[in-house]
Amino acid sequence: MRAIKTDISIIIVNWNTKGFLRNCIKSIYDHEGGYSLEVIVVDNASSDGSTQMVKAEFPSVRLIQNRSNEGFARANNRAAAVAKGEHLFFLNPDTELVNSAPGIMMEFLHAHPDVGAVGCCLISPDGSVQDSCGFFPGINSYLLEECRLDRFSRFIPAFGRSKLRCRDCCAATEVDWVIGAAIMVPSHILRRVGGFPEDYFLYLEDTDLCRRIKGAGYRVVYFPEARVIHHWEKSATQDKVASYYEHYRSAYRYFHIHEGPFYAMLYAASMLGACGIRIFPLLLAGVVSERAASRAVLDWKVIKGVLLGDISRVRKPGQ
After folding, report:
1. Is the N end or the C end of the chain the one with fewer CB atoms within 10 Å?
2. Which residue(s) pair with 90 in the sheet?
3. From 3.40.50.10490, 3.90.1150.10, 3.90.550.10, 3.90.78.10, which CATH number describes the 6-234 domain?
């Protein structure tokens, strides 16, 4: 068993976000608290000079260079396997610390040993609070989102909700999941649940991890005193088509793992139905946006993938 020598290991998975990564690392050192930390950057084969920048400007950062884009879960697990910290803080490169969030979250975990994962308040650059926690998703909540009706979910409780309005949470709040853009997990708990689930390449691995943590008997908590600016999906939006693929594939896998193959098939069919609901009014009006058309094609490919058994063959970002 490896010796623990550090309070916090901050783990950042990067793919072609050089400028954001620089600001993220700088903000970490600008907000150092009274604790020991190490910063580990896992680079998923970036081509924008990210690795050269880290080596030149932050020589104390531990850099792991992958030869290909291994995705979010696998890259995080690779760093966690060599991290020395008692607590592991997984942080997106498109974030900046506002306060000493890692130390605040660590102290919260010390005071609440029954908590297995804690998330913080994520803030958009304009100062608005992002929704970054919630309830485990179901087909109903996904259907509402795809039909653009999720804003009305609080008026239709039978359909359920997957997200909470974080701006209404002024104190520590127990939730089902917190977003992986800024999540802290004690290292012994991450080892106990087997790390991030590598069934996912991108999306929902954080939700699945929280589900495993809760299944092991720990609580998951949103803690708004820790604050982080989040520029939101700067890696994913570099390849929107591949990102759509991964969104659908991850949801399909999530339902398949936790609800079974019939439920996963029902999800895929529901998404195709939602696609029709979105597109039909546009067809009547004689207007189909490029984005709507792209989503319609992707919905169909998910259904085709499920029926033909090739759901895992869709391409990944960067490949």
Report:
1. N
2. 11, 183
3. 3.90.550.10
Residue where the block lists tokens 């040993």: 113
Cα distance between residue 257 and residue 246, in whole Å: 16
Token output for 215:
């299944």
Pairing of strands 62-66, 219-230: unpaired
Report how far residue 186's alpha carbon sits from residue 123's, in angstroms, rounded to the nearest whole number: 24
pLDDT at 240: 59
Residue 203 backbone class (left: φ over 0; alpha: ψ -120 to 50; beta: rest): left
**Stretch 164-184: mean pLDDT:** 84
List of long-range contacts for 211-217, beta carbons under 8 Å, 24+ apart: 211/136, 211/176, 211/177, 211/258, 213/116, 213/117, 213/185, 213/189, 214/116, 214/176, 216/116, 216/189, 216/192
Q: Are 292 and 283 in contact (CB under 8 A)?
A: no
Q: What is the pLDDT of residues 245-291, one digit of tens each?
A: 777 788 888 888 888 888 888 877 777 776 666 666 655 665 566 66
Q: Count Cβ atoms below 10 Å from residue 184 Cβ, excluding itself.
A: 27
Task: Report residue 214 CA to chain centroid gap.
Answer: 17
Biggest alpha carbon–alpha carbon distance for the chain: 65
Ordered by start, the domain boundaries in the chain are 6-234, 239-313
Q: Are 25 and 54 in contact (CB under 8 A)?
A: yes
- Over its C-alpha atoms, the chain yields an Rg (Å, rounded) of 20
Distance of alpha carbon 30 from alpha carbon 228, whole angstroms: 13
Q: Taking the CB of residue 142, how many other CB atoms lie within 10 A of it?
A: 20
In the DSSP assignment, the letter for residue 217 is T
pLDDT in tens, 91-130: 999 999 999 999 999 999 999 999 999 999 999 999 999 9
Per-residue pLDDT, 1: 38
HSE (side-chain half, CA atoms, 13 Å) at 152: 7
The CA distance from 240 to 179, in Å, is 20
